[in-house]
Write a sequence for this structure.
């Protein structure tokens, strides 16, 4: 492998290590295709080097001849090169007499393995490099003599992380590991998913976003701001990977229940895509986290010297819409029709508009609206095995009428309509929503936002949640308000007064914003509640019985949904796919889980669960004629499991 290095190479296709080039060359040169030695023209090794890979086809090179001259002489000569400057320019020598005002070209020529291999997170194995690999890849002396297995590395890292008492410290330790050793990071996360999921995602990721400016070390995704307007396609090419299949994008305006965090919301797409890999088996190189920075209205951040985003008020209207549209078009042009774009943590008004605008032209999915709805519907389906009846026989009351609340309500109504063969408008009458102004009723129709209007039923105005509970008498109470401790003792006791087993879902994240705790729900309902929350709570003991509280975590759904879309080659996301995902997840809840008070299966089986969900989603895509990967596999579950990324180390020649 030959690579020229230098910041003078500005062509987008040259930034970082190209995955497509590495894959094509990996069959010809001893893997991994990373560098060993560097030669600098001025004779000062290590002098301001930054690796830039030359994207050329490499002819067969004998495995026993990896010399610089041998590799260099075997580079194909192509009439059209992606390098924008000639070799003489690349090789400009830096003179000791150069001044700071003069432009120079720092560069290195690097070949095969060595020290940079230990700095490449995609290939680094740390102390797991075998004796043979240490000889073959020039690692002798760069590592201590001990050789340990990946399993021992996982055990050691887990013990190290458990020593941290502060969740944010654990989060930072995990992110550091991801930047050092990618496979070990995912092996650790997969093997300890129930303990580490709250570390890499909710609730800890909320604090990480709040402090992102302070803990920021190196970029883990693309930051696209108003400065890049008109150049977004070019900016996308700066990302080193070319075969992108999943993009998670946020504008940071509504991060969890924490509000506008601007550019510091990057922690959300980074965390989500880590779960796409760990839980759904989508390879890391196919995932791209993106933050669209249009400013922030958070005065505290605007005045924070460590804030990493644009220091201006949020763009709105046409300026905002044009930037997002350019992004959506650039993604499709660069990565094709089948790239999945997941919208994440956009404010209500933009979230609904973006989903409506692009759902018929792009493969798009809003996790706050659709993912939350799918996982909650699944929990409700499972809870029917305990409380009895069908969905149509229950009455639903929501606290919160934003993205999550209306999204869940709509999917419940779709499932009721499907089961009972009634019009959707009729199915919606079983569902009531409360917002900050009280119960949503028809007399408020002129003053409410468009996405709330389908839920404005005929009823007298009701001003608060407790009165709504007593008037509507719901069997199922769902919180998606983002307002903590709003399911008060009086509300829970009222639910328990007319329901033998009230279903209470406190979904808001992070933990501080949960409508009530698991302990409160069980205690105030005298141990009769069927409870689940958005953030995890520890088991609760009440009157000598231990209640395990379930977590209605979107991570049950979106990794499997994404995997199903990819293996089928789907070009659009249909509501029936979300219903299929909900049904698949509900089917994974065992009687043993229900006996423990759980309406969701344990996360320890999440990869098998994701494969089941992926198979159902893919089957629905084929049924609807939205799948492009033809012919369909005979066994979709087996195909999904085979497709999954493995974090186990490869052996290097």
């Amino acid at each position: 492998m030959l690579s020229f290095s230098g910041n003078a190479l500005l062509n987008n296709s040259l930034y970082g290590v190209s995955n497509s080039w590495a894959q094509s060359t990996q069959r010809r040169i001893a893997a991994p295709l990373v560098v060993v030695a560097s030669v600098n023209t001025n004779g000062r090794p290590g002098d301001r080097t930054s690796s830039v890979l030359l994207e050329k086809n490499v002819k067969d090179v004998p495995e026993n001849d990896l010399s610089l001259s041998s590799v260099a002489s075997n580079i194909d000569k192509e009439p059209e090169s992606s390098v924008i400057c000639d070799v003489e320019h690349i090789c400009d020598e830096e003179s000791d007499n150069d001044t700071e005002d003069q432009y120079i070209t720092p560069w290195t020529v690097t070949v095969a393995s060595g020290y940079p291999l230990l700095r490449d997170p995609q290939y680094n194995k740390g102390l797991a490099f075998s004796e043979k690999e240490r000889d073959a890849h020039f690692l002798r002396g760069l590592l201590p003599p001990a050789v340990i297995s990946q399993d021992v590395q996982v055990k050691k890292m887990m013990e190290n992380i458990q020593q941290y008492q502060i969740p944010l410290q654990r989060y930072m330790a995990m992110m550091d590991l991801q930047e050092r050793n990618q496979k070990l990071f995912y092996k650790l996360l997969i093997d300890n998913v129930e303990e580490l999921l709250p570390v890499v995602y909710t609730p800890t990721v909320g604090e990480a976003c709040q402090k992102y400016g302070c803990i920021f070390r190196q970029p883990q995704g693309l930051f696209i701001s108003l400065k890049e307007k008109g150049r977004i396609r070019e900016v996308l090419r700066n990302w080193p990977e070319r075969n992108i299949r999943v993009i998670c994008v946020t504008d940071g305006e509504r991060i969890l229940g924490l509000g506008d965090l601007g550019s510091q919301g990057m922690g959300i797409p980074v965390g989500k895509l880590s779960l796409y890999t760990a839980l759904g088996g989508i390879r890391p190189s196919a995932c791209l986290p993106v933050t669209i920075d249009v400013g922030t209205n958070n005065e505290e951040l605007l005045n924070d010297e460590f804030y990493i985003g644009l220091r201006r008020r949020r763009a709105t209207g046409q300026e905002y819409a044009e930037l997002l549209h350019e992004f959506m078009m650039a993604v499709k042009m660069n990565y094709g029709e089948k790239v999945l774009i997941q919208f994440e943590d956009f404010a209500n008004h933009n979230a609904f508009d973006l989903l409506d605008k692009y759902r018929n032209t792009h493969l798009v999915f809003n996790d706050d609206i659709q993912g939350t709805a799918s996982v909650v519907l699944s929990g409700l389906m499972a809870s029917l095995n305990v409380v009895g009846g069908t969905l149509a026989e229950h009455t639903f009351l929501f606290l919160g009428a934003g993205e999550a609340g209306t999204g869940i309500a709509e999917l419940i109504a779709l499932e009721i309509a499907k089961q009972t063969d009634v019009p959707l408008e009729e199915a919606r009458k079983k569902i009531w929503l409360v917002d900050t102004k009280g119960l949503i009723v028809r007399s408020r129709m002129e003053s409410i936002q468009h996405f709330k209007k389908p839920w404005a039923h005929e009823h007298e105005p009701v001003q608060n949640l407790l009165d709504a509970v007593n008037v509507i008498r719901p069997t199922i109470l769902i919180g998606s308000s983002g307002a903590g401790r709003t399911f008060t003792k009086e509300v829970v006791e009222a639910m328990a007064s007319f329901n033998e087993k009230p279903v209470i879902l406190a979904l808001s994240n992070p933990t501080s914003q949960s409508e009530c705790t698991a302990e409160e729900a069980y205690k105030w309902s005298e141990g009769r509640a069927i409870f689940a929350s958005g953030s995890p709570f520890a088991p609760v003991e009440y009157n000598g019985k231990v209640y395990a509280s379930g977590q209605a975590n979107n991570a049950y759904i979106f990794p499997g949904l994404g995997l199903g879309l990819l293996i089928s080659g789907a070009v659009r996301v249909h509501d029936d796919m979300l219903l299929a995902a909900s049904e698949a997840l509900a089917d994974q809840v065992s009687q043993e889980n229900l006996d423990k008070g759980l309406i969701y299966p344990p996360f320890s089986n999440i990869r098998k669960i994701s494969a089941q969900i992926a198979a159902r989603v893919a089957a629905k895509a084929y049924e609807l004629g939205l799948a492009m990967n033809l012919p369909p596999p005979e066994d979709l579950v087996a195909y999904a499991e085979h497709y999954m990324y493995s974090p186990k180390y490869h052996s290097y020649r």
Remarks:
- The chain has 26 helices and 17 strands.
- The two ends are 15 Å apart (CA to CA).
- Residues 1-99 have pLDDT under 50 and may be disordered.
- Residues 275 and 555 are 7 Å apart (CA to CA).
